[in-house]
Amino acid sequence: MAKVAVHKVPKGKLAIDGGPKAVTVEIPRSYFGLSEISDEEKRNVLDVLDRQMLFRWQDAKRSYVARFEREFASLLGVKYAVAVSSGTASLITGLRALGIGPGDEVIVPAYTFIASASAVILVGAVPVIAEIDDTLTMDPKDVERKITPNTKAIMPVHMRGIPCQMDEIMRIARKHKLFIIEDCAQCNGGSYKGKRVGSIGDVGCFSFQVSKTITTGEGGMVVTNDPMIYIRAALAHDSGITFWWKLSQEVPQELKRVTPFAGDGYRMSELAGAVGLAQLKKLDKIVATLRKRKREILEDIAGAPGIKPMRVPDPDGECAYSVNFLFETVEQAQAFSKALAAEGVPVHTIHTEGFPDRHIYRYWEYVLGKVPVTKNFDPWRDPRYGGNVSYSPDMCPQTMSILTRTVAIPLSQKMKRIHTQQISRAILKVAYALFS
Ligand SMILES: Cc1ncc(COP(=O)(O)O)c(C=O)c1O
Fold first, then answer.
1. Is residue 4 very low, low, confident or very high in pLDDT (cuts 50, 70, 90)?
2. How far apart are CA 333 and CA 359, in angstroms?
3. Pairing of strands 406-410, 322-326
């Protein structure tokens, strides 16, 4: 808990009312890993192109994808990693590795990118939507309420760099004998009570799309400590992997325990692997800088009237993509956000009525409408499905209430102390003017 600071509150009219802006320097806005691309990524990519080795199994011994997998696993402290072509592919691969399919339900949070739910549908299972709480991540109490005899797994999504309440979620999973598939797309580099996200549940899934902590343009990773889950994930991500293993004399021991089954086409290219390997070295620095900047702001503004920083299950482990505040009312959130924007701070409310944000369950039309993928591929009407999940745009009032009352100030690793000082000044100016 940050101690209450003695505030030096900027005097004068709010900028929204015609006064001078509290922010007098330009606040850096950037992507995370994408904005850190430098010589190392370029060198690796040129090496791939010069050697004309764009496919991992052309030169398995020197494969960038294989090195990326090994170093990713080592950083997370897990035994196995399988690189794939996207975050969605990582979730589908992770679900297949767990044996999830028709007849099964998987609990997903009401606030996550639609891909979390579509991955469940694409393996033939049914997503069940649970509320989030004041952490912006799934509410363990609602998760437990949503368990049915058909539930096979829970998918905690570490949203906006915030680690989920994994102690509670793991306890529920153990009690009900359910799998945990962590969606870490928005929390690469995060941890919970000293353990990297992705290494806590049965399987962890990552995305390296451009907006993520580190990027390969498109890409993903599946991680696990379980040899059977690993081998199933490897088989699930590449229809021909047993052939490539044999050709490269790299057949894993674990293969003896599984009969190969049809896999998908989710291999990562060497170009992506080359970028990923270079980006990985920057991951912890990006996250450490974001955490530092967030802490500076929280310490500067601690105890300011009317504003409440959002609860983070493990502040030492968050990726700190943004500083988030939860207001008592929608009107307060809107007023604060508008006044702060006028002061020159990049800021936004998380949900604005009418904007069809695909991160909010209400706008998942093909999920709420139970739209079959094809005529005969229909998880909800599959004869093996014995449940009867129901959806409606108003089914998660707690989630909608929290999202409409949340205001986020996005952070950048390019920010310096001068920028957080100016953001803090603006926050204090607005908070004292509106709420004291
Ligand atoms: C929480 C979450 N899950 C899954 C995904 C899907 O990742 P990708 O876009 O790489 O398929 C994303 C990406 O935006 C995401 O934010």
1. low
2. 19
3. antiparallel
Average pLDDT over residues 291-319: 97
Pairing of strands 220-224, 203-207: antiparallel
Domains of the chain: 36-279 (3.40.640.10)
Q: What percent of the chain has pLDDT over 90?
A: 94
pLDDT surpassing 90 at residue 206: yes
Q: Whole-angstrom Cα distance, residue 28 to residue 241? A: 44
Cβ of 114 closer than 6 Å to ligand 1, yes or no, is: no
Better-scored residue on pLDDT, 41 or 9: 41
Contact 408, 324 (CB under 8 A): yes
pLDDT at 5: 66
Residues 134, 140, 143, 148, Cα dihedral to 10°? -160
The response to whether residue 116 sits with its C-beta less than 6 Å from ligand 1 reads yes
Burial class for 253, CB neighbours closer than 10 Å (0-12, 13-18, 19+)? exposed
Please give the Cα distance from 108 to 299 (Å, whole number). Answer: 34
Determine whether the shortest distance from the Cβ of 113 to ligand 1 is under 6 A: yes
In short, whether 399's Cβ falls inside 6 Å of ligand 1 is no
Query: What spacing in Å lies between the alpha carbon of 14 and ligand 1's midpoint?
Result: 38
Average pLDDT, integer, range 59-79: 98
Whether the per-residue pLDDT at 353 is higher than 80: the answer is no
pTM, full prediction: 0.97
Nearest CA to ligand 1 atom 8: 87
Distance 63 CA to ligand 1 centre (A): 25
From the list 122, 126, 124, the residue with the least C-alpha distance to 92 is 122
Task: Report the catalytic residues.
Answer: 212
Quote the CA–CA distance of 167 and 416 in Å, as a whole number.
34
3-state secondary structure of 331: helix
Atom from ligand 1 closest to the CA of residue 208: 10
Q: For the chain, state the CA radius of gyration.
A: 23
CA distances from 116 to 92, 360, 361, 376 (A): 9, 11, 11, 22
